[in-house]
Amino acid sequence: MDKIKPLEGLTVLAVEQFIAGPYCTMLLADAGAEVIKVERPGVGDPRRTIGPYLTAKDGSTRISGGFLEYNRNKKSITINMQAPEGKEILKKLAAEADVLVENFRPGTMDKLGLGYAALSEINPRLIYAAVSGFGQLPTHEGPYSKWPAFDIVSEAMGGVMHMVGFEDRPPVTTLYGLADTYSGLVTALGIMMALAARERTGRGHFVDTSMYDAMLAMNERALATYALTGAVPVRGRETIQGPRGAFMASDGYVALNIPTDDMWARLVKVMGREDLIEDPKSKDGPARAANGEGYLRPIIEEWMSTRTKSQVVEAVLAAGVPAGPVQTADEIFACPHVAARKMLVEVDDPNLGPVKFARTPVRLSDTQEVPGRPAPALGQHTEEVLGRLGISADEVAALREKGVV
Q1: 95 inside domain
Q2: 243-263: pLDDT as tens digits
Q3: CB contact set of 392 (below 8 Å; sequence gap of 6+)
């Protein structure tokens, strides 16, 4: 059976910047959609100027690595959407597109006359997906809907930051861009749901993603705990189960989570400490949670201290206790399982040569591997895409002279 590209034939307009929108459309592009990235003439996506900064193969050109991360497998066109001619070009593109994704400040596209209300009049089948800090579906607007936001803001307000770190220290952020990438993934899911609905109704949808909503949903355990018990969870202090965390072996850390009494019994038998099964300080989840740091951690780490990460993981896995080494980026690149899963996509960048990036995590049977086309140069595909609208090369040149493209 020939392998397919799941979203082949789908046309996506990516009116996007920074991370949330670009990550969403990269997922769609990896699955075979034609993603046309719309950028400002002469400037482009602000991430074209964000590091890490690299030197090209020619030894002199400075390359922004920040842009390469989220923009593989796309085409780039430049349009000045402030100009009347630019607005008309975008409307013509939207008339032929299946999906439009944007992550500008709420109201920006509406002020340009290019929001969902205007474009759905032109193309009723258009799925218009908007990622914002606090959501902008008219029926669900709140007091923060017009606020701008970066990922750290939604992490903070969604309660995620409150749960990361230690009780006696300030809250800390999680992964850089976590709220952006997770919101991009949620938006891609929303687009798939809207496409399925369009198959039945023939109508498009407005897909509204709030980064605040996304982080709130990710923080569901803390909210459920409060709803059920009235207690506000505190960072760095587990009250329900344990031990849970990263424990030091002779050459690094191993991650353990012990949610049940029977799993605890399996672990301590491996350690030769069956006495801990009936010990009042560790006989059940709440007791282990209360005594995790001062009492149980030293015991566990003493046993681990004479063993490497690999030896610890092998021993506890054999006993039926899930565990894994805490890996650094270089260890991930060298991981045989990552290689077997083909989770690093090699992109042959024209300026840098072969570079590997994290693959889209979704896999389907009988589908082609994610292609490794490099992130496009600014406006690289302007003439190609506009030519499909019947705009000649001479007309493109004239538009370029006026700063429209």
Answers
A1: yes
A2: 999 999 999 999 999 999 999
A3: none
Same-domain status, 20 and 153: yes
State the total domains in the chain. Answer: 2
Which helix (H) or strand (E) segment holds residue 214: the answer is: helix 211-218
Return the pLDDT at 163: 96
Co-location of 169 and 285 in the same domain: no
Query: Over the stretch 14-58, which tens digit does the pLDDT of each residue have?
Result: 999 999 999 999 999 999 999 999 999 999 999 999 999 999 999
Where residue 294 sits, what CATH number does that domain have? 3.30.1540.10
pLDDT tens string 143-164:
999 999 999 999 999 999 999 9
Q: Burial, 311: exposed, middle or buried (Cβ in 10 Å; 0-12, 13-18, 19+)?
A: middle
Quick check: is 199 in a domain? yes
pLDDT grade, residue 299 (50/70/90)? very high
Kindly state whether residues 286 and 310 are assigned to the same domain: yes
| Strand partners of residue 39 | 78
Is the same domain home to 395 and 366? yes
Label the pairing between strands 11-15 and 99-102: parallel
* C-beta atoms surrounding 405 within 10 Å: 24
- Given this model, what pLDDT does residue 353 score? 95
Among candidate residues 45, 98, 151, 180, the one labeled active-site is 180
| Residue 237 in domain | no
Q: Tell me if 371 is assigned to some domain.
A: yes
Q: Which of 298, 330, 362 is the last residue of a domain?
A: 330
Question: Contact, 226 vs 233, CB < 8 A?
Answer: yes
290, 324: one domain: yes
The H or E element spanning position 174 is: none
Same domain, 113 and 72: yes
DSSP state of 315: H
| Domain range enclosing 304 | 244-330
* Catalytic-residue membership of 275: no
In the predicted model, is pLDDT for residue 1 greater than 90?
no
Residue 238: pLDDT band (50, 70, 90) is: confident
Backbone angles phi, psi at 11, to 5 degrees: -110, 125
pLDDT for residue 227: 98
Q: Quick count: other Cβ atoms within 10 Å of Cβ 376?
A: 21
| DSSP reduced 3-state for 146 | coil
**Residue 304 near residue 247, CB atoms below 8 Å:** yes
